[in-house]
Design a protein that fits this description.
alpha/beta; 4-stranded parallel sheet; two-stranded antiparallel ribbon; 6 helices; globular
Length: 199
């Protein structure tokens, strides 16, 4: 069932459920005017490493960040990039489709972005293209706390562990749902599209 409109927060290598809302919605608003929220997908992603789930966090400039609009949040430095790239390589280097996507993902991470939201948009557009998801993306012009029935508000409701159809993950027999989209695309490759569309 297609949704008319959804609203999502910006996200760093968003979880799989995020892309299902993008697929199901004719219009998707990305929230620009909320205040930055700590410990969220806005600057954090979960991937599956050899021993456990790994948390990747993009450091931000923290001066008054809790009262800064999301669109104005700045990335603190470049020190994290090498660690994130190595963590992704360690986690997915032996996955079936690693060689098809890793270099482009590495290139995106290594680009210099001042603002977190611009970086997240580049990631988002890359995966929208790979998954062939067509939606009308818009940015919010003002903050609205409650959208009621105007649109599906998922700014804070895309939980890290939601029920999703199982697929093969290389480091575990106990399926871990709703990890970052990179977990799906490294494991399923072109079949990720069908998974997003049918799960």
């Amino acid at each position: 069932m297609k949704l008319n409109s959804s609203i999502l927060c910006t996200a760093y290598f968003p979880p799989i459920k995020y892309f299902q809302y993008l697929h199901l919605s004719q219009n998707v608003y990305i929230e620009h005017k909320e205040y930055y929220k700590r410990h969220s997908i806005r600057n954090r992603a979960l991937i599956l490493g050899p021993n456990n789930v790994l948390l990747l966090t993009v450091p931000i400039v923290k001066k008054n960040s809790s009262k800064t609009f999301m669109e104005n949040i700045r990335i603190a430095n470049n020190d994290w990039k090498k660690k994130h790239i190595q963590s992704i390589k360690t986690a997915y280097g032996s996955s079936p489709f690693f060689i098809y996507y890793f270099e482009e993902i590495k290139e995106i991470i290594n680009k210099n972005h001042t603002f977190l939201i611009d970086f997240n948009y580049e990631i988002l557009y890359y995966f929208l293209n790979e998954l062939n998801i067509k939606t009308n993306l818009k940015k919010t012009e003002s903050y609205i706390k409650n959208y009621e029935n105007q649109c599906c508000d998922e700014r804070d409701n895309i939980e890290m562990h939601q029920s999703l159809k199982k697929y093969t993950q290389i480091f575990t027999k106990n399926f871990i749902p709703n990890l970052s989209i990179i977990d799906l695309i490294f494991n399923l490759g072109p079949n990720s599209k069908e998974y997003i569309y049918t799960s």
